[in-house]
Specification:
Blueprint (H helix, E strand, L loop, with lengths): L13 H24 L9 H10 L7 H11 L9 H10 L2 H4 L2 H10 L1
Helix pairs in contact: 1-4
Keywords: Calcium
InterPro entries: EF-hand-dom_pair, EF_Hand_1_Ca_BS, EF_hand_dom, KIC/PBP1/KRP1
GO molecular function: calcium ion binding
């Protein structure tokens, strides 16, 4: 089996969003993202809601195992879905610019 290295360019926009929107505005924007992806009846991001909304986001080629992996990455309580706090924590963990910025650590504690 041939192993192929794939380089992915990743630009972390979260630090500049925090700078321009402020901490409270950024958290509100994360909450808007959560509401976009969640199952309205359950108030959680579920496998079904993430799969359905991934098409809207242009990620329609995601496999089921990738969606499960995304959910399990942030599922802190083990219920198989993401609540709003788990989603926000996951977004922070996925942003190197926020994770390694001392100023952001302070307001993460304040807002999350």
């Amino acid at each position: 089996m041939e192993v192929v290295d794939i380089a992915v360019d990743f630009e972390d926009y979260f630090p500049s969003m925090v700078e321009s929107m402020g901490a409270e505005g950024f958290i509100m924007e994360l909450c808007n993202g959560f509401r976009l992806l969640m199952d309205v009846e359950r108030g959680l991001i579920t496998f079904e809601s993430l799969k359905r909304n991934s098409v809207v986001l242009g990620l329609n080629e995601l496999r089921d195992d990738e969606i499960v992996g995304m959910l399990s990455e942030g599922d802190l309580d083990g219920d198989g879905a993401l609540n709003q706090v788990e989603f926000c924590i996951l977004m922070f963990r996925l942003s190197p610019g926020l994770m390694y910025n001392n100023a952001s650590k302070h307001w993460v504690d304040e807002y999350i």
